[in-house]
Amino acid sequence: MEEHRRHPRLTQPLEGTWLGLSGAAACRIADLSWGGCFIQTTTMPPIGHRTVVTLTPATDRPAVAIPGTVRYLEAAMGFAVAFDTLTPDQIAGLTHLLGEPPKDLSAE
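Below the sequence we write its predicted C-alpha coordinates.
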Protein backbone atom coordinates (compact mmCIF):
# COMPACT_ATOMS: atom_id res chain seq x y z
CA MET A 1 0.00 0.00 0.00
CA GLU A 2 1.34 3.43 -0.96
CA GLU A 3 1.99 5.79 1.94
CA HIS A 4 0.11 9.11 1.68
CA ARG A 5 0.98 10.55 5.08
CA ARG A 6 2.87 13.82 5.28
CA HIS A 7 4.14 13.37 8.84
CA PRO A 8 5.47 10.48 10.94
CA ARG A 9 2.98 8.89 13.33
CA LEU A 10 3.03 8.13 17.04
CA THR A 11 1.29 4.76 17.29
CA GLN A 12 1.49 4.42 21.08
CA PRO A 13 -2.12 4.66 22.31
CA LEU A 14 -3.21 7.72 24.25
CA GLU A 15 -6.34 8.30 26.27
CA GLY A 16 -8.57 11.20 25.39
CA THR A 17 -12.01 12.43 24.47
CA TRP A 18 -13.73 13.66 21.34
CA LEU A 19 -16.65 16.04 21.21
CA GLY A 20 -19.61 14.63 19.32
CA LEU A 21 -23.15 15.72 18.59
CA SER A 22 -24.36 14.35 21.93
CA GLY A 23 -21.42 15.54 24.04
CA ALA A 24 -17.93 14.34 24.85
CA ALA A 25 -17.04 10.66 24.63
CA ALA A 26 -13.97 8.92 26.04
CA CYS A 27 -11.75 7.30 23.43
CA ARG A 28 -8.37 5.82 22.68
CA ILE A 29 -6.22 7.74 20.23
CA ALA A 30 -4.35 5.02 18.39
CA ASP A 31 -2.46 7.04 15.81
CA LEU A 32 -1.29 10.64 16.17
CA SER A 33 0.63 13.01 13.90
CA TRP A 34 1.00 16.75 13.38
CA GLY A 35 -1.84 16.62 10.85
CA GLY A 36 -4.42 14.52 12.69
CA CYS A 37 -5.23 11.31 14.52
CA PHE A 38 -7.20 8.07 14.44
CA ILE A 39 -9.73 7.58 17.21
CA GLN A 40 -10.72 4.09 18.31
CA THR A 41 -14.38 4.13 19.31
CA THR A 42 -17.61 2.37 18.48
CA THR A 43 -19.50 5.67 18.17
CA MET A 44 -19.18 6.98 14.62
CA PRO A 45 -19.73 10.62 13.68
CA PRO A 46 -20.48 11.44 10.05
CA ILE A 47 -17.67 12.29 7.64
CA GLY A 48 -17.24 16.05 7.58
CA HIS A 49 -18.37 16.41 11.22
CA ARG A 50 -16.52 19.10 13.18
CA THR A 51 -15.08 17.83 16.47
CA VAL A 52 -12.59 18.66 19.19
CA VAL A 53 -10.14 15.95 20.16
CA THR A 54 -8.61 16.25 23.63
CA LEU A 55 -5.39 14.31 24.20
CA THR A 56 -4.66 13.30 27.77
CA PRO A 57 -0.93 12.49 28.10
CA ALA A 58 0.00 9.80 30.63
CA THR A 59 2.46 12.24 32.22
CA ASP A 60 1.98 15.35 34.31
CA ARG A 61 1.55 17.40 31.11
CA PRO A 62 -1.75 19.24 30.59
CA ALA A 63 -4.36 17.92 28.17
CA VAL A 64 -4.30 19.33 24.63
CA ALA A 65 -7.60 20.15 22.87
CA ILE A 66 -7.46 20.37 19.06
CA PRO A 67 -10.39 21.06 16.71
CA GLY A 68 -10.65 19.20 13.42
CA THR A 69 -12.83 17.48 10.86
CA VAL A 70 -13.74 13.79 10.51
CA ARG A 71 -12.14 12.57 7.24
CA TYR A 72 -12.96 8.85 7.07
CA LEU A 73 -14.53 6.00 9.01
CA GLU A 74 -13.32 2.44 9.63
CA ALA A 75 -16.33 0.25 10.40
CA ALA A 76 -16.28 -1.14 13.96
CA MET A 77 -12.85 0.47 14.57
CA GLY A 78 -13.09 4.25 14.66
CA PHE A 79 -12.49 7.34 12.58
CA ALA A 80 -9.76 9.71 11.40
CA VAL A 81 -9.66 13.41 12.18
CA ALA A 82 -7.68 16.03 10.26
CA PHE A 83 -6.62 18.82 12.62
CA ASP A 84 -7.26 22.49 11.93
CA THR A 85 -4.26 24.82 11.84
CA LEU A 86 -2.52 24.42 15.20
CA THR A 87 -2.09 27.25 17.68
CA PRO A 88 1.23 27.83 19.46
CA ASP A 89 -0.20 26.23 22.65
CA GLN A 90 -1.34 23.15 20.71
CA ILE A 91 2.06 22.88 19.02
CA ALA A 92 3.75 23.07 22.44
CA GLY A 93 1.49 20.30 23.77
CA LEU A 94 2.07 18.04 20.77
CA THR A 95 5.83 18.66 20.77
CA HIS A 96 6.07 16.71 24.03
CA LEU A 97 4.46 13.73 22.29
CA LEU A 98 5.74 14.03 18.71
CA GLY A 99 9.07 15.83 18.99
CA GLU A 100 9.94 18.96 17.06
CA PRO A 101 7.25 20.12 14.61
CA PRO A 102 8.01 19.93 10.89
CA LYS A 103 9.10 23.12 9.17
CA ASP A 104 6.04 23.08 6.88
CA LEU A 105 3.58 22.94 9.79
CA SER A 106 2.48 26.56 9.41
CA ALA A 107 1.42 25.84 5.82
CA GLU A 108 -1.20 23.26 6.87
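Helices lie at 88-98.
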